[in-house]
Amino acid sequence: MSTLKYLSAYSPDLQAQVQSLIDEDRLARFLLDKYPTIHMVANDKALRDFVLGLKQTYLKKSDALSKIVYDPKIHVVNNALGTHSFVSRVQGHKLKSKNEIRISTLFKKTPAEFLQMIVVHELAHLKEKDHNKAFYQLCRHMLPDYHQLEFDLRVYLTYVERYGNLY
Fold it and tell me: Cα dihedral angle (108, 72, 124, 18), rounded to 10 degrees?
């Protein structure tokens, strides 16, 4: 069985199931049956509206976001799907902070569920900086099937790495 780097943290049984889909040339059909259409969040303004809508619904009292963009410099190869950054600066006698969310442009043409999962992940970092139990509880609060979507997204990334874009 070849290496499935995006799925390395999952059980050997799950990895074997995905490898079977690859070996039988059924991975594309599996993904397209489960996620047949892509989202319409095609530019930075639409992405900002999408992110702020989720933030308003689940994290009203969290810090403001100064920038929300698709970023072509984020490469999935480096294990990043999106990034969040928090910068603090002293201006006069005040401490100013900026929060940014950047999403890889790879996700401009993916199912809405995948984009939502990435956005939820990055929004959760506004409250929880580390990937700990509280972080994943917050992700599940915003998106109850978060873990399934993360797995499916990793299956999709496996497809993209092997064959190129699906959508």
Answer: 60
CB atoms within 10 A of CB 52: 14
What secondary structure does DSSP assign to the chain, as a single string?
----GGGTTS-HHHHHHHHHHHHTT-HHHHHHHH--------SHHHHHHHHHHHHHHH-TTSPP-SEEEEETT--GGGT-SEEEEEEEEEETTEEEEEEEEEEEGGGGGS-HHHHHHHHHHHHHHHH-SSSSHHHHHHHHHH-TTHHHHHHHHHHHHHHHHHH----
Q: Indicate the pTM of the whole model.
A: 0.86
Helix axes 146-163, 112-127, angle to 10 degrees: 120
How far apart CA 14 and CA 100 sit, in angstroms, is: 34
For residues 82 and 69, give the distance between their C-alpha atoms in angstroms, rounded to a whole number.
Answer: 10
* Contact partners, residue 78, CB within 8 Å, separation at least 6: none
Q: What pLDDT digit, counting tens, does each position of 95-121 carry?
A: 556 788 889 998 999 999 999 999 999
Q: Which amino acid would we find at residue 109?
A: K
